[in-house]
Amino acid sequence: MSYQNMQKHIFKGMKLYQAIVLLIIIVMGIALITNATLIRKQMGSIVNLRLGMNATRISTTIANSSEIAEALTKVPVDESAIIKLVSKISNATNASIVIFDAKGKLTAVYNPTNESLLETTSASQGQIGIMQGLPNNIFKKDDVKNIYDSNGNIVGYVIVGFPEDLVSKLSRDAVDIIVISSVLALALGIIGALLLARSVKNTLYGYEPIEIANLLQERNTLLDTVKEGVFAVDKNCNIYLINISGLLILEKAGVDDLTNWHEKPFAVVADDSEVKKVLKSGKALNNIDFDIHGLKTVGDIIPITIGGTLTGAIVSVNERTAIKEMAEQLTGVTNYADALRAQTHEFMNKMHVINGLLATDNLTELKKYVQQISSSDEVNMEYITSRIKDPLLSGFLIGKKSRANELQLDFSLSEESFFPADLSKIIAVNDIILIIGNLLENSFEALRFLDKERIVNLAILTYEDELIITVENNGPAISSDVLAKIFKKGYTTKGSGHGVGLFLVKEKLATIGGKISVESDILDGTIFTVEIPIKEGAKT
Predict the structure, then answer these.
(1) pLDDT for 357-405, tens place per residue?
(2) Residue 387 sits in the same domain as residue 499
(3) ∠ at Cα 84 (83, 87), nearest 5°?
């Protein structure tokens, strides 16, 4: 069984914190048992060595004692003095001590273990003879020390030893300490494992590894389905993630190397000044322009906060052209919807009048009213369609006429206006509708609160090489400060939700080679003039 398979088998079905605790217990248990076993095996040798060293120090101390040497030189030997000195040493060390005179006769013995130290009371064959009379489990031959008098003559012998049962007792005591220490260490290890497991679980927000893996996979899948290019940066403004749309934007921008973006600074993609502002302030920024290797994009910067700490930011971007196309489409739909709603509203008002006349059985007035509105509508439709030959644009202007009637505005199309049907093959009629629709709505809005006659004039003049559109209103004059900013994206004097229409007009004109100007004064009001060159193949 491989290590990976064994690991899966052991921890199968366990939660992360349980696996951590079990793993630490197993590792510590094996380590402690192994150490305790090895130490126990070595303990006997260690105790024997220490006791042997103690025995050597004690015998050397006795051999160098002038009082012992003097007692041995007396005739007869002063055994009481020797026993008195030896007993003090033995009581302090728990050692077995035997002293012989120069002839090998036993003169003093201290035996705290109550073992039979000697089979005979004398040994006349020197050190070998002395050792033959002593038990080997206590004394060793090399431990015999000579006792010298002041003249350097041998006056006796001393030998010190420790019984084996003392060695065993000391070894057991040491092993008991090791076992107790190991148990305490294991208990502390278990407590530490529990604390570590809890800390890991809190760090992972209570998720298990498999759940984190699933979330990561789901996140990657979600990011790859997002149409915006997403760049995730850390607190140092280094990239750590780019989704597929982001890579496609880089590819479109002409970036050759689309690999190894991990930990590269965002500055290699685009200017990172705005991103650093968000990383410093923790506040999101919207509609930020990014120049990605010459590709114009716009996006948002959202800070990432974990546990109250700012850890990075998400930069999501879209090509400016894609956003502009979407805004143009929405603007066009809005214009169509407004025109249709105005026509519906005007139609319903007329139906209410007709219904009222029918209810009062006033058929004469009903006949006059129907003839009047029929004639009026017919005149308006004929007036517009005779000049505007494109059905889409003429229908749009008829709707705008209804919209103006609803707002009680005097909206007129100049008699000189003309838009030939084949011009829509050169200039996209949707572009014309976007431009005229936004300029008319801007004029309608400017006259909304005017307390005098409110007039809006539209002129569509077609020349051989140029299309000129003018939208004029008699509203309040626009100050020079406002005129300088009127075409900037997001600029408005009408509150939130505005500031896009005139910007889109200028952007659209830039793409088709046109231009726009505006004049405003107190006497004549405000007039917008649009000039669009007519060139074959210029349709967008």
Answers:
(1) 666 776 676 656 555 555 555 557 788 888 888 888 888 888 888 788 8
(2) yes
(3) 75
Tokens of 144: 């015999």
Whether residue 108 is predicted with pLDDT greater than 70 in this model: the reply is no
The model scores a pTM over 0.85: no
| pLDDT exceeds cutoff 70 at 202 | yes
> What pLDDT sits at residue 11?
53
Looking at the structure, tell me whether residues 174 and 81 fall in a common domain: yes
The CATH number of residue 248's host domain is: 3.30.450.20
The more confident residue out of 346 and 258 is: 258
Contact between 469 and 436 (Cβ < 8 Å): yes
From first CA to last CA, the distance across the chain in angstroms is 69
Specify the pairing of strand 455-462 against strand 285-292: unpaired
Whole-angstrom distance, CA of residue 37 vs CA of residue 182: 11
- What secondary structure does DSSP assign to 282-312, as a single string? ---EEEEEEEETTEEEEEEEEEEEETTEEEE
| CA dist list (Å): 537 to 329, 428, 533, 534 | 22, 11, 11, 9
Report CA-CA distances (Å) from 161 to 52, 86, 137, 510: 8, 13, 9, 111
Three-state SS for 394?
A: helix
CB within 8 A of 419, min separation 6: which ones?
387, 388, 389, 390, 393, 432, 460, 462, 467
Dihedral angle of Cα 171, 173, 175, 178, to the nearest 10 degrees: -140
Same domain, 71 and 139: yes
What lies within 8 Å, CB to CB, of 512 at 6+ separation is 427, 431, 532, 538, 540
Relative orientation angle of helices 429-446 and 501-512, to the nearest 10 degrees: 150
Indicate whether 430 belongs to any domain: yes
Sheet containing 285-292: order of strands: 239-242, 229-234, 309-319, 295-306, 285-292
| Domain with 228 in it | 224-317
Give how many domains the chain has, as a whole number: 3
Per-position b or e across 71-82, b if 16+ CB within 10 A of its CB: bbbeeebbbebb
Residues 249 and 190 in one domain: no
